[in-house]
């Protein structure tokens, strides 16, 4: 099945109002590619509304980096998926390894957040990935399989879900798995999803690779089998770095 590539930028805890000028530059650089590739930027929650307003009329979708599983309530500091949607977001990252580590998020929590995203009409980008110790211990596929089973709800479809494979040890380090290792994990993920969701649904779900994707390696990484795009951290902060990655995907 043909899957439309998606390149999503995760600004993490970076960016202030002045950073939104990067959206204008990005739109100017990649706007013409919108027929071939989906582009998204996930700024910090403080900027989601302004970013959505700024990106209106461009092909750049705006997303959140996390959401709470509930619609509303006494959850100081949290943001509901509905609030992100209200601010103009159309997608949200859930289960990023930094959330799993910094906030102790379990697969169950991530699954509930993905369902919350759908409830609000958002696409959920569900992240999975092994630590360096797990890879060194030969446990990569076990870990990724368990996270997929636990974090991806049974009602996942190609329209409401994207899965991002992000080896924890590759995030922000400049290191990436070999091409063979990425293909092995992505192919495994496709099969694992197919076993639970059916081959048709699994065949339509986009699988992104994330972890030290840069302009210099994007063309090689994005042509790999079952790699349907990228989730980009550091290189998404500047349009000059992010645009070539989008071009590589297109
Ligand atoms: O969500 C993005 C990833 O954590 C990748 O970050 P990075 O591109 O800075 O390695």
From TrEMBL:
It is an enzyme of class 5 (isomerase). Its EC number is 5.3.1.1. GO terms for molecular function: triose-phosphate isomerase activity. Its main location: cytoplasm. The keyword Cytoplasm applies. Pathway: Carbohydrate metabolism; erythritol degradation; Carbohydrate degradation; glycolysis; D-glyceraldehyde 3-phosphate from glycerone phosphate: step 1/1; Carbohydrate biosynthesis; gluconeogenesis. GO terms for cellular component: cytosol. It holds the Pfam family TIM. The keyword Isomerase applies. Keywords: Cytoplasm, Gluconeogenesis, Glycolysis, Isomerase. It is found in: Cytoplasm. GO terms for biological process: gluconeogenesis; glyceraldehyde-3-phosphate biosynthetic process; glycerol catabolic process; glycolytic process. Substrate binds at residues 10-12, 172, 212, 233-234. It catalyses: D-glyceraldehyde 3-phosphate = dihydroxyacetone phosphate; L-erythrulose 1-phosphate = D-erythrulose 4-phosphate. Gene3D superfamilies: Aldolase class I (3.20.20.70). SUPFAM superfamilies: Triosephosphate isomerase (TIM). The active site is at residues 96, 166. Involved in the gluconeogenesis. Catalyzes stereospecifically the conversion of dihydroxyacetone phosphate (DHAP) to D-glyceraldehyde-3-phosphate (G3P). Homodimer. NCBIfam families: tim. Belongs to the triosephosphate isomerase family. This is Triosephosphate isomerase. It comes from Oleomonas cavernae. The lineage of its organism: Bacteria, Pseudomonadati, Pseudomonadota, Alphaproteobacteria, Acetobacterales. The gene is tpiA.
